[in-house]
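The instructor's notes for this session suggest beginning with a concrete chain rather than abstract definitions. Hand out the sequence below and ask the class to guess, before any prediction is shown, which regions might be ordered.
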Amino acid sequence: MASDQVKTTFLSTFLKVLSVLSAVATLISFIRTYWLLGVHLAVFTILTWLAIWAYRRTVHRVAPGLVYGSEEPFLRGLNWDHVTQVSIIAHTGRSLYTAFDAFIRKERLSLPAASVRVLTRSASSETRDRSRQIGVTSDEVATRRGNGLNIEHRFYHTLPWLRGYLIECDNKERKALIGFYRWSQAWTSEAAPFYVPVEDSEEQRDPLLELCHSWFEHHWGETDLHTIVFDFDDTLFRTMSIQVEAWASAIEARLKSKRLSANDLEAESVRPVAHDPVEFRKVLRNVFVTYEAAKDIMSFLLPNLSQDERDKLDADRFEERVRLTESAQPFTGVLEAIERLKSNYHLAIVSATSEKMISDALDRKHIRKHFSVVLGKLSDAPEIEKVSSKACLLLKLSNLTGVSFDRMVFVGDNQSDHLAARQVGIPFVESRVAAIEAGLSSFVRYDPGEKPTFFSSYTDDSLKTRLEEILSSIKIKRLTEQ
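After discussion, reveal the predicted structure:
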């Protein structure tokens, strides 16, 4: 019995050892067959984890706090009971405004204590498809306004680079979801796929948030009518007599020095009075009113003079004009009108006169600071065939300020001002102050059936009334388009 038990134990142990040896042999055979695949898998796994680690390190080092995805989590995280103002900066509004509108519908928010401001690019500055989308946004805003939401929609002209939500709360805290636009490979602008969430308090303002608010407030403006553009000569300052005197002095000096003869002058009206200072100036004034631009006046007065001699005479005239303009005075009521207007509108000047001459005149009356931009004769604006120089300056002004023409008005006194406004498509308000002082009703020649918008004095509220009428017409036009 003992011998049988020993035999059984030995056999069992032998079988176990044989089983282990078989398993080891099988494993060795598998490794020899598939070891290369195993090595590849191990290397791939290691490299993948290294790539993920490096990516996370790079994102957090370059731009910590970036948020990818939709706008809804940000909107959902706000305490809407404390929100007083929502400012939406968008290109067309297709993403940002639509997301906001969908959210307040879904949450059934009426926002009774909040005002909503939607700023998109002007449709006139965009392609057809994007213009249509801006129109859709306008329609949706109008619908929301009709349903009782305190909401407005305005426009900017500058190239879009900033987008997002700026939120202001009743405790002076501010929260924002700020995004940007980038250029695609197809050379069209598109929204970058991330946002930067920012918030601050009244005690500690965030620099990025301050920058975004300044950009928004500049383009938003106080009213739909953003910028009033003034002509300078005989619109703000009385300069007709100065310009006529500069022409007369320059011509008389050349006649006296024999560098010019009476025969060089226009024969019918100018030559007979060339030696009568009083009558000569009367004729020059009529020529000045009729032709306005210096080159046209020169061509009429001295039709046969060489270009070289014209240039020399014009330099003498301009030098005398600069000297005389030092005594130029604004029309009665202009300074007070500027003080009233600057609180509601951005002010600018576009003129055929030298920028330095204009700025010096404004500085003498301490009102240069009220005009954000002054563009004059020596401004580097593109020359466009069949487009007036003032119209080119208006184009430059829009590019400089980012304000679209549908939010501007041009205040001028003569035909060239009226033509410039018409060429770029902005409302024109005629100042008849200088014309009335000259004994005329107007310096502007309107087309038959054209209804002029004008005022005759700065001492009353007529200019303010005309601007309010234009502002009202802008609002009506937008409502009609919507």
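Then share the key points. The domain at 227-236+328-481 is CATH 3.40.50.1000 (Rossmann fold). Confidence is low (pLDDT under 50) at residues 1-8, 55-63.
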